[in-house]
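ok so I'm stuck.
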Amino acid sequence: RVLAGHSKDVCGCDLSSDGALVVSGSEDCAVRLWDSSSGQAVATLVGHRGLVYDCCFSPDDQFVLSCSHDDSLRVWSVAERLCVRRLVHSAGTFRCCWSGDGSRIVAADMDKRIVLWPGTVQDQPSRKRKEADE
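replied:
not stuck anymore, here's the structure
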């Protein structure tokens, strides 16, 4: 199956643990969620202002983490389809991932560094709009 819909090159992707959803990040600055069975896009997560280099599901599949050339990482609620946390960084980030237990987020940046953050989102305010934390 081919999933098509981004307007520019796709830079990163991940599959949910149950295989039901695919997440992709693109040079078009969007993060998309896809139904892996139908191949249809189910959501476009808008907020990054630079190309999205990487994206991945949290270990419990409740969240998606994305990193971008815009010097930020974003945590998106899969259920709400909204940004629930924005991590501002001093440089663009190439790669990102969660620890196996979801307690940490790690990212590789354009300043030749690896940066760690707490991975929890429990105390983060939920956004009621798709473009959060402007």
